[in-house]
Design brief:
The chain is mainly α and about 290 residues long. The chain has two domains: about 120 residues; about 110 residues, no CATH class. Helices cover about 50% and strands about 10% of the residues. It has eight helices and eight strands. The strands form three sheets. The chain has a three-stranded antiparallel beta sheet with strand order 2-1-3. The protein has a three-stranded antiparallel beta sheet with strand order 4-6-7, with no helix packed on it. The longest helix has about 40 residues.
Length: about 290
């Protein structure tokens, strides 16, 4: 029984660490510059209780497998040595693949629950499931599902070794945070310069997440037209320092701004993807200019 308790402690420790990382990742996603601290007593109690339940479930399955082997061995008249060998095999499997599966799954659970705590602390109340390209049918079917923070808790992972994660539902996020302004309300060099220096491209997303700028046949929209599109659609927010804090299109999570050389792609703007702030964008532009000469 002592080993079981030790197993519970290990799961709790690593799940707690993963939750800390997930919470900070949530803060970094919105780029508010805060540090995340997992100090909420209710959250910690939930995490501890959840870890114990998970370990008990795994140990129960292990005991069930062992009991099955012993029962079948006795029924078939197998010698003790053979039964012992099979039982040892179960333990070896548990220490190997099973242990790794548990670790992967529970770290994912801790990371996602930590992210939810982080989002909740920033006033975000709705999140959506993001599944990686090439995910299993179950995960693909749940991609884009919306949930409140309360509903979402402990939903992910959807299955062992699941790689789905939570993104804040940006278009439902309250933009009235101190220091945030709508891009459409800012007329100055900050927004204008950002658009002029930048092209936008789709990032690893399906074609149905794209929106096409309405232009004449054969016309390639200019950076100013792209900027106007974003401002008019009220898709983004910039803080007082001129750094983009959040981009919130109507149908998805966060945008990613990326410099490109092929101007033909300017007409396509993604409604999905990841977001990076102005400082990261500036670094990318610098590197791109050096690499591609534009």
């Amino acid at each position: 029984m002592g080993k079981y308790k030790e197993f519970e402690k290990i799961i709790y420790r690593y799940t707690h660490e993963a939750s800390e990382l997930g919470g900070q990742a949530a803060v970094d996603t919105i780029e508010l510059g805060h540090r995340f601290h997992f100090e909420d007593k209710d959250a910690l109690n939930f995490l501890k209780e959840n870890a114990v339940q998970l370990s008990e479930s795994s140990l129960s399955r292990l005991n069930g497998d062992i009991n099955k082997v012993i029962a079948e061995g006795i029924k078939n008249g197998a010698p003790i040595r053979e039964i012992t060998k099979e039982v040892k095999g179960i333990f070896n499997d548990f220490r190997g693949y099973e242990a790794e599966r548990i670790a992967r799954t529970e770290i994912a659970r801790g990371t996602n629950n930590g992210a939810l705590v982080g989002y909740d602390g920033m006033g975000i109340k709705v999140v959506e499931i993001y599944s990686n390209p090439g995910a299993c049918p179950l995960c693909r079917a749940r991609h884009g599902d919306l949930m409140s923070i309360d509903q979402a808790t402990n939903t992910l992972p959807l299955h062992p070794n699941c790689y789905c994660f939570w993104l804040p539902r940006a278009d439902i996020t309250n933009p009235n945070v101190d220091g945030w302004k709508s891009m459409g309300d800012i007329s100055g060099e900050i927004v204008k310069g950002l658009a002029i220096d930048t092209a936008f491209r789709r990032v690893s997303m399906a074609p149905e997440t794209m929106v096409k700028l309405k232009t004449k046949p054969g016309h390639i929209p200019s950076p100013d037209e792209v900027r106007l599109f974003i401002e008019t659609a009220d898709m983004g927010f910039i803080d007082e320092a001129g750094q983009i804090c959040l981009v919130s299109p109507a149908e998805s999570g966060l945008w990613k701004f990326a410099p490109i050389k092929e101007t033909e792609d300017l007409g396509n703007i993604s409604l999905s993807g990841y977001y990076i702030g102005k400082r990261q964008l500036t670094r990318q532009l610098k590197k791109a200019r050096k690499t591609y000469g534009f």
